[in-house]
Design goal:
- The chain is elongated.
- The protein is 41% helix and 22% strand.
- It contains ten helices and 13 strands.
- The strands form two sheets. Strands 1, 2, 5, 6, 7, 8, 9, 10, 11, 12 and 13 form an eleven-stranded mixed beta sheet that branches. A two-stranded antiparallel ribbon has the order 3-4.
- With 290 residues, it is of the alpha/beta class.
- It folds into two domains: 11-162, HUPs (Rossmann fold); 165-290, HUPs (Rossmann fold).
Length: 290
C-alpha cells in the first residue's frame, strides 16, 4: 500500500481523488478518500477531469442546451469552461474543508483529457503506491469501469469508493478475505484505517465449503496471534454476493476492505452478478484491492 513510502518521507503514495466534470460528487466519497489519506499519513491529489469529448461535442454547430422551459441556448467553449471551473471550485471547497479538519494536505489539478488516461498519467507522474478514489457514488453497473482502472492504472494499489447509501458512521473496519495470501497486507491497511477513529477490526473469511473455511480459520488465527483489536467473525460460504452483502450489513461496519473481482465485489456479471446487492446493503465506504 502507500504506507511504507509515506513513512519513508518520499513524495509518493497519494490518494488521487478523481472527479469527472458532469457527474455528481458525493461528500461521503470525498470523506472516505480523506480518511484513507489520513490513515496512511499521505495527501490528496484532487484531479478534476474535463472530458475531452465534451469539447468535441460543443464544437458541433447543432450543439445546444434545452432548458426545462423549452428555451434553447447555443453551447460554446467559453460557457463550458466556465461550468468546468465552477464545478472544480465546488468540489475543491468540500475537499479542502474535510482535509483541513483531518490535517491532510491537498494539491489540485484540472486537466482536459480522457478520464481513464488522466488518472493513469497522474498516477504515473506521482510514482507508485497511489490509491485512486472516485468522487462520485458507485453504481451497480460500474465493475467494467473499476476493472479498467485496475488494468490501466499501474501506479494504483487500490480504489476507494462509496455507494449511493453511503453515510458517515462509526463502526468497525471490516476485512473480507477470499484469498489468504492477501490477509497480511489487507489487515495492515485495516489497522491503519481503524486507527483514525479508534475502531476495532472485524475479519470475515469467505470460502467455498466448510472444509476450506476450517483451514482458512486455522491459518488466520496464526496470523492474528495476540492482536486484541482484531476479531474473527464466523466464516461465510461463498454461495452468492447477495448473502455475503447481507452478512456485511449486519456487521454495521464503518469501512470495508475487500478484493475486487471476487464474490464480495464482483468484477463482472458472468460469475456472481453486478454490485447491486452489495450497494443496496452497505452504508460504509470501501477500499478495493487488487
Amino acid at each position: 500500500m502507500i504506507a511504507h513510502v509515506a513513512e519513508a518521507g518520499e513524495e509518493r503514495g497519494r490518494v488521487v481523488l478523481r472527479y469527472d466534470v458532469g457527474s455528481l460528487p458525493s461528500t461521503m466519497s470525498i470523506a472516505a478518500a480523506v480518511r484513507v489519506a489520513q490513515a496512511f499519513q499521505s495527501g490528496i491529489e484532487s484531479l478534476v477531469i474535463a472530458d475531452r469529448q465534451l469539447y468535441e461535442l460543443v464544437a458541433f454547430p447543432f450543439a445546444a442546451e434545452v432548458s426545462r422551459a423549452g428555451r434553447t441556448t447555443r453551447l460554446s467553449i467559453e460557457a463550458l469552461e466556465r461550468d468546468i471551473v465552477t464545478a472544480a471550485g465546488g468540489l475543491n471547497r468540500v475537499v479542502g474543508k474535510l482535509a483541513a479538519q483531518a490535517g491532510v494536505n491537498v494539491r489540485k489539478r484540472l486537466v482536459r483529457d480522457e478520464p481513464l488516461l488522466a488518472v493513469a498519467r497522474t498516477c504515473a507522474e506521482l510514482g507508485p503506491w497511489n490509491v485512486v478514489a472516485l468522487a462520485e457514488p458507485l453504481a451497480a453497473g460500474h465493475p467494467p469501469a473499476l476493472r479498467a482502472l485496475f488494468d490501466m492504472v499501474h501506479g494504483a494499489t487500490g480504489i476507494v469508493v462509496a455507494g449511493p447509501k453511503g453515510r458517515n458512521r462509526a463502526g468497525p473496519v471490516l476485512v473480507a478475505i477470499e484469498d489468504l495470501d492477501r490477509l497480511p497486507p489487507m489487515l495492515r491497511a485495516a489497522e491503519r484505517i481503524a486507527d483514525v477513529t479508534r475502531d476495532e477490526v472485524k475479519l470475515l473469511l469467505i470460502g467455498e465449503d466448510p472444509r476450506e473455511l476450517d483451514w482458512m480459520e486455522d491459518q488466520a488465527r496464526l496470523v492474528l496471534g495476540e492482536m486484541g483489536r482484531v476479531s474473527l467473525e464466523p466464516s461465510v460460504p461463498a454461495r452468492s454476493s447477495a448473502e455475503i452483502a447481507e452478512r456485511l450489513r449486519r456487521l454495521c461496519g464503518g469501512f470495508l476492505i475487500a478484493q475486487f473481482g471476487g464474490v464480495v465485489v464482483p468484477g463482472s456479471s458472468e460469475r456472481t452478478g453486478d454490485l447491486g446487492p452489495l450497494l443496496a446493503a452497505l452504508e460504509c465506504p470501501m477500499l478495493l484491492v487488487r
